[in-house]
From TrEMBL:
It catalyses: D-fructose 6-phosphate + L-glutamine = D-glucosamine 6-phosphate + L-glutamate. This is Glutamine--fructose-6-phosphate aminotransferase [isomerizing]. It is found in: Cytoplasm. The active site is at K364 (for fru-6p isomerization activity). Keywords: Aminotransferase, Cytoplasm, Glutamine amidotransferase, Repeat, Transferase. Its main location: cytoplasm. It comes from Streptomyces lateritius. Catalyzes the first step in hexosamine metabolism, converting fructose-6P into glucosamine-6P using glutamine as a nitrogen source. The gene is glmS. The keyword Cytoplasm applies. Homodimer. Residues 41-181, 214-359 form the SIS domain. One of its GO terms (molecular function) is glutamine-fructose-6-phosphate transaminase (isomerizing) activity. The chain holds residues 247 to 615 of 615 of the full protein. The keyword Cytoplasm applies.
Length: 369
């Protein structure tokens, strides 16, 4: 049932191109416009929404953090993202024009379920993004957009995360399409790129051998840090979470701009630091800033592991290890930049002799608060 792989996680990492393609299937028409009729939230509701609130836990929360950048950029609707476990305990401001998006692979996470019940009691409309047909969260929501990752068995979420990203992009672009923002042309172009993204994920998977070798060489380390900016920041958080749960290592993700506000004090000789570099085009200001961050930490002894787009030569002199990803539109980069981090964590866990599919102390779905 592991299809020739040693672990379900390896199989699920490999299935990501198909999971991404399946989640897009039937949702983009021949003219390159989105069709989400199955979602069954009337367009009028989407047009009138004045706020989006995303609730989720763990890896699903990280997909929500990325969705915020996409939703605010393409729709200009303010978007908040909150850990489901914090949400209902702080009396959040919700109303009939609030669109709540609950993201969950299993559809059974108690924290997310309680948060969505609270939101509906306050009159908000809830859209679930979920991977499990007929599970509790979609049943209790007003509408659902299913991710088509297929069953995810490994405790560490991989293919479900990529499909959550796809679903979030679809919702963001659809909201933009329905509301007719000034980004019409860009939305159209991004839909075309999104339709091709499964191939990009495939290309990344084909180049992972050096990442595995690097992971094995770091098996004796105690700490790994992850840095990113913009959508690369939640990717850094996700890379750190994968490493904690699988390798049982101390790992932390930071927004690179925060370095000099504290975390740079952690940098010491030979400390591995993974840096997710934004696209050099379009967001060149951010790109230049992160290149200076890489120089700063390297000057203090860090061992830099740099994830950067193909063709980005500016990072080469400062990268002790360079991991290449295909060039994508800025907001879509997490679809490709996350994959090496999954492979990295999985290989480190194996090298440390850990049980990859069933990490200690964790359960696949967390049905208690
Ligand atoms: O089933 P859900 O998506 O609601 O689960 C949420 C988290 O428990 C889950 O993503 C968890 O963080 C994973 N083990 C991460 O790999």
């Amino acid at each position: 049932e592991k299809g020739g792989y040693d672990y379900f996680m390896l199989k699920e990492i490999a299935e990501q191109p198909k999971a991404v393609a399946d989640t897009l299937l039937g949702r983009i028409d021949a003219e390159g416009r989105l069709r989400l009729d199955e979602v069954r939230i009337p367009d009028a509701v989407l047009r009138e929404a004045d706020k989006v609130v995303i609730i989720a836990c763990g890896t699903a929360f990280h997909s929500g953090l990325i969705a915020k950048y996409a939703i605010e950029h393409w729709t200009r609707i303010p978007c908040e993202v909150e850990l489901a476990s914090e949400f209902r305990y702080r009396d959040p401001i919700l109303g009939q024009r609030t669109l709540v998006i609950a993201i969950s692979q299993s559809g059974e996470t108690m924290d997310t379920l309680m948060a969505l019940r609270h939101a509906r009691e306050q009159g908000a409309k809830v859209l679930a993004i979920c991977n499990t047909n007929g599970s509790t969260i979609p049943r209790e929501s007003d509408a659902v957009l299913y991710t088509h990752a297929g069953p995810e068995v490994a405790v560490a979420s991989t293919k479900a995360f990529l499909t959550q990203l796809v679903a979030c992009y679809l919702v963001a672009l659809y909201l933009g399409q329905v509301r007719g923002t000034k980004w019409g042309d860009e939305i159209h172009a991004v839909i075309r790129e999104l339709a091709r993204s499964a191939d990009d994920v495939e290309r990344v998977l084909e180049t992972m051998e050096p990442v595995r070798a690097l992971a094995r060489s770091l098996a004796h380390k105690n700490t790994v840090l992850f840095l990113g900016r913009h959508v690369g920041y939640p990717v850094a958080l996700e890379g750190a979470l994968k490493l904690k749960e699988l390798a049982y290592m101390h790992a932390e993700g930071f927004a690179a701009g925060e370095l000099k506000h504290g975390p740079i004090a952690l940098i010491e000789e030979d400390l591995p630091v993974v840096v997710v570099v934004p696209s050099p085009k379009g967001r060149s200001v951010l790109h230049d800033k992160i290149v200076s961050n890489i120089q700063e930490i390297r000057a203090r002894g860090a061992r830099t592991i740099v994830i950067a787009e193909e063709g980005d030569e500016t990072v080469v002199p400062y990268a002790d290890h360079l991991i290449r990803i295909p060039a994508t539109p800025t907001l879509l980069q997490p679809l490709v930049s996350t994959v090496p981090l999954q492979v990295f964590a999985c290989e480190l866990a194996t090298a440390r002799g850990n049980e990859v599919d069933q990490p200690r102390n964790l359960a696949k779905s967390v049905t208690v608060e």
